[in-house]
Amino acid sequence: MKAKGFRDFRRLTVTCPLERGENDARSRRPARSRHPARKGWSLFAPNGRPSLPCPAGPLLTAACAAVALTAVGRLASMGLRVRRERLFTRKQARFKVLHITDLHSRGGEFVNIWPEVDKLDFDLTVITGDLILNNCEDLSPRLAEYLRKLARRKPVFFVEGNHESLYYRNIAEVLTACGVRVLYNAGQVVEINGRRINIVGLRDYYYMKDRGFAGLRSAFAGLDTRNFTLVLSHQPQIFERAAAYHADLVLAGHTHGGQLRLPLLPTLYAPGQGFLPRYGDGWYKRGQAALYISRGVGATKFPLRTFNPPEITVIEVKEF
């Protein structure tokens, strides 16, 4: 005869685990939320609160990274950089040229390069266009005074940029009054350190292209090609044509070095050439001719430079 408690124990051992399993299953059921479930990845864990949908996370991350990169690039572009370059030639030439381009004065305001210019040693100055941004009023009396002071120190030569092409007569009058030599498709012979140097100034590339580059012949007419020939052009696309006229060194600007740069990458965009331009910044070579493109000082109507500080350049030309 079995004890009464034995039946009760067997009943308990059979039924209690089932009850516990049912309770465990209920406890594992997810809690219902008043908010509808959202498919896909979310920036925040789903805990019953609304979270950002799938595209917002990557976009927000990319936006934050872009802002941070721009801030770092802006800091890296503060201050003025003076680049020093050297070119050797087989012709008789020995001089240092200060190259200024793309100052882009706007309303009379511009990057104050002049205290640094006062410290430099050079034999002549060339300005390859775009002193102004909008109109003749950008060539303020304050800027004119700096140019007048510079011209009293050493010879200064100027060629127009695309921002001056509509006002070239007015600009020429003001600069000539300051003692600056304006070259519009013209050449001059100067003597520097006992050597005769040809200096040729060309009008803006767009102007030249619209007229079939007819002004090139008159610009180089009558020059002795045995002399070292320095060519000034705002845009670098003229390089191959200038090389055909026995140019030894072409100085240009216009590209701003892309203005918005990324670390360790070349110029990504240049006006007039588009993305991944053939002529970005720095040195280029074709036969006996060399081209140097300065990244310039100012900025366009989008007033921002990243990883690209304003620069002026002193190039020393020496004989072998």
Q: What would you note in describing this structure?
A:
- Helix content is 28%, strand content 22%.
- The protein is built from 8 helices and 14 strands.
- The protein has a single domain, classed as 4-Layer Sandwich (Purple Acid Phosphatase, chain A, domain 2), CATH 3.60.21.
- The strands form 3 sheets. It has a 6-stranded mixed beta sheet with strand order 1-14-2-3-4-5, covered by helices on one side.
- By secondary structure, the chain is of the alpha/beta class.
- The protein starts with a helix and ends with a strand.
- Strand 10 and strand 11 form a beta hairpin.
Quick rundown:
With 320 residues, this protein is an alpha/beta fold.
